[in-house]
Amino acid sequence: MKKFKISPPILIAGWREWAELPDLNISKIKVKLDTGAKTSSLHAFDLSTFTNKGEEWLRFDVHPIQDNDTIRRTCVCPIVDHRWITSSSGHSQKRFIIQTTLKIGEYSSLVEISLAKRDEMGFRMLIGRNALKKKALIDPGRSFLLTHQHR
């Protein structure tokens, strides 16, 4: 009989957590960890493309705190890809894909994120399963296991 080695996950997280996107100068953003979503998504607006040393780059703004439009971060980064993303409502949309560092608790990793208007959504950022694949166990009944709720 073949034996399987089971490795513990790097982190055990709640269904919502506080995260950081240090490369984008976002030190605090409440995220929903959604294993039903493949790709992570970040609320972005005022998107504009430009060329930097022959590469396509993107400038965009983010309101990192839900229900607070006074805090605004302007972000600049290279475009990794353009992809068709299907939302939970079944609507497909071509989105810019960027790559940036995601930090949740002690965990840090380079992840791909699609940019979309998420004004009507409950969270400004959604962490999809690709970002945490084989690295996390999500407890759907708990919140803020990796960070303090009132940071």
Question: Mind explaining what this structure looks like?
Answer:
The termini are far apart. By secondary structure, the chain is mainly beta.
Give me a quick take on this structure.
The protein has 151 residues and is mainly β. The protein is 3% helix and 53% strand.
Topology:
Elements: E1 11-14, E2 16-21, E3 26-33, E4 40-43, E5 45-52, E6 55-62, E7 73-78, E8 81-86, E9 92-104, E10 107-116, E11 125-127, H1 129-132, E12 136-139
Parallel strand pairs: 1-12, 3-11, 4-10
Antiparallel strand pairs: 2-3, 4-11, 5-6, 6-7, 8-9, 9-10
Descriptors:
151 residues, single chain, 3% helix, 7-stranded mixed sheet, 3-stranded antiparallel sheet, mainly beta, globular
What would the average pLDDT be, to the nearest integer? 88
**Strand line-up across the major sheet:** 2-3-11-4-10-9-8
Q: Major sheet, described briefly?
A: 7 strands, mixed
Low-confidence stretches: none
The total of beta strands comes to 12
Query: Distance between the terminal alpha carbons, to the nearest Å?
Result: 49 Å
Number of DSSP helical runs: 1
Approximately what portion of the residues adopt beta-strand conformation? over 45%
Estimated radius of gyration = 16 Å
Sketch the topology as an H/E string, one letter per element. Answer: EEEEEEEEEEEHE
Q: What coarse outline follows from CA principal-axis ratios?
A: globular
Global structural class: mainly beta
